[in-house]
């Protein structure tokens, strides 16, 4: 087995599963509320099917530049994002969306299941995490835990503790100031 290949907590090689992730969160004693639902692939799907799920709802953009540097940008679901403007904020990077293959290879999820919790599969810690400053003002935030058939509601402190446990220091960006 190569160094870049991972073994999940269930003994399988390849991406870790939602159960692996939830077990990890339980081991860290990080609280979450789990909600199961039909698969959601877009923000529009989420809005249509989530009902009265409280908290901040997010969109997660897996981006890359021409040199192969990768970012996971986590922002409020209705926040408009201009990739040129965001690239300028990242030091002039020309950004594009990462392909589904790159997404699976790097974060172990399919399009529609991207969230900060997919960083659980980033064994090389090659993805830079960028969080919308406004997210941290909510009592609860909602994310898919490696599957777009589930949502977990977590506090911003729990999200930050999870990221810190994995070795990430997210960049906090004021996306409202970019608009």
Which helices and strands, and how do they pair?
Layout: H1 18-27, E1 33-36, H2 43-49, E2 56-64, E3 70-76, H3 83-89, E4 96-97, H4 100-107, E5 127-132, E6 141-143, E7 150-154, H5 156-166, E8 171-173, H6 175-178
Parallel strand pairs: 2-6, 3-5, 5-8
Antiparallel strand pairs: 1-7, 2-3, 2-4, 6-7
List keywords for this structure.
alpha/beta, 179 residues, eight-stranded mixed sheet, 8 strands, YbaK protein, 6 helices
Distance between the termini: 46 Å
Relative strand content: 15-25%
Q: Report the helical percentage.
A: 25-40%
> Uncertain regions: pLDDT < 50 for 5+ in a row?
1-11
User: Shape, please?
Assistant: globular
Q: Sketch the major β-sheet.
A: 8 strands, mixed
Return the CATH architecture. Alpha-Beta Complex
Gyration radius from CA atoms, angstroms: 16 Å
Total of DSSP H or I helical runs spanning 4+ residues:
6
CATH class assignment:
Alpha Beta
**Mean pLDDT over all positions:** 87
Looking at CATH, the homologous superfamily is: YbaK/aminoacyl-tRNA synthetase-associated domain
Strand-pairing-aware structural class: alpha/beta
Query: What is the count of β-strands?
Result: 8
Helix and strand string, N-terminal first? HEHEEHEHEEEHEH
The domain tally reads 1
